[in-house]
């Protein structure tokens, strides 16, 4: 079979464009925008925990040498850790550090879950739009003449194929890629927070450890 026979711009426009339109109508502009942002971030460089740890080390060294009272917040080029540094210095509290991290973590999880949900909807709708294209092509049988029957059949088959391909080889894999990237970044950030909290605990008089806070929360 000639691969060029599988290329049908009209069928692709019906399935792909229809899927995007239906997904937008089902999910709304805000969620669709969150999915688009997550997709544009996929080709970019992932979270560099090594760089952030190296820059955090300077902050930790300053706190250990000068004490938390004289330390100044640093800028790390990362929104969360900039806020964490500011919260740590302002409140002189490990709890403030963890609270700030939880707020950022919740926003990231929500954004990743929203993007995944939108792409899952698209994966669900793509085969439906493929079927719509098939029905449109089959509906042309009544007006087809001579060799146009073969063309209508080909269009009917190819739209179904496009729907299945978009669902299983485009939208679903993209949703999985966003979820994997979010989990990997969250794990690296959790490790950095644990390391930072442990490093500065001894510099904050009377600061409870993470274990103390967990035990208090459990009680």
Description:
With 219 residues, the protein is mostly helical. The chain has one domain (10-218). The protein is 79% helix and 0% strand. The protein contains seven helices and no strands. Helix 2 (29-41) packs across helix 5 (94-139). The longest helix has 54 residues, at 148-201. The chain is rod-shaped. The N and C termini lie far apart (68 Å). The model has no long low-confidence stretch (mean pLDDT 83).
Helix/sheet category? mainly alpha
Which oligomeric state applies? single chain
Q: Report the span from N to C terminus.
A: 68 Å
Major pleated sheet: none
Compute the number of structural domains.
1
Radius of gyration: 26 Å
Shape, per Cα inertia axes: rod-shaped
Transmembrane segments: 6-25, 125-147, 153-179
Membrane topology: Multi-pass membrane protein
Main location: membrane
InterPro entries: MotA-like, MotA_ExbB_proton_chnl
